[in-house]
Specification:
The chain is 29% helix and 10% strand. It has a two-stranded antiparallel ribbon with strand order 1-2. A two-stranded antiparallel sheet has the order 3-4. It starts with 16 loop residues before the first strand and ends in a 7-residue tail after the last helix.
Length: 174
């Protein structure tokens, strides 16, 4: 016999508690009420409503969901909230990207538009290299304009396991 949702009157239980969300009278087994620490819901929808965390909009106080990282409830409130903010205050004195660009342009004008080691002449791809490996020291005598290949050799190939001078061979290859 297929279950159709109809339950005979003799098997119906009398409600013994109320749903915490909608206050509908429901029956829950007493051990389930104890096991769930007194939390009682008539459906998954009511459980979901009870689990929502709301916080007030900064401008109008309307409750909004806190899980979405929102501070305001609408675009109008966001515009009103943003109206008094001064964006240019408290920026760092030197923007790193701008200062690196200025350094590269200065070195190009002083030292020419070619790699300082191999004289590769495509100046658009040249990179600023710090000789003492400290990016904070931006004095001109500490800087060098080199191509990406020379830069890679400087930083990554000096301790390479493929370096013949240190191992005497290619580590058993060939």
């Amino acid at each position: 016999m297929w279950y159709t949702g109809w339950v005979p009157e003799q098997y119906k239980r009398n409600p013994n508690t109320f749903c915490q969300s909608c206050q509908k009278p429901i029956y829950k087994r007493p051990f389930e009420i104890v096991r769930n620490k007194g939390r009682r819901f008539c459906s998954m929808a009511c459980y979901g409503i009870a689990c929502r965390k709301l916080h007030p909009c900064l401008m109008c106080g309307k409750p909004i969901l806190s899980g979405q990282n929102k501070k305001t409830c609408s675009r109008a409130c966001a515009n009103r909230h943003r109206a008094g903010i001064k964006y240019k205050l408290n920026l760092p004195r030197k923007d790193k990207v701008t200062s690196q660009r200025v350094l590269k342009l200065r070195l190009l004008s002083l030292r020419g538009m070619a790699c300082g080691r191999c004289w590769y002449s495509k100046y658009q791809i040249l990179q600023v290299h710090h000789k003492d490996r400290n990016r904070e020291h931006n004095q001109l005598e500490n800087l060098e304009l080199i191509c990406p290949n020379c830069h890679y050799e400087e930083h990554f190939l000096e301790g390479s396991w493929l370096d013949k001078r240190k191992t005497g061979s290619f580590g058993g290859v060939g």
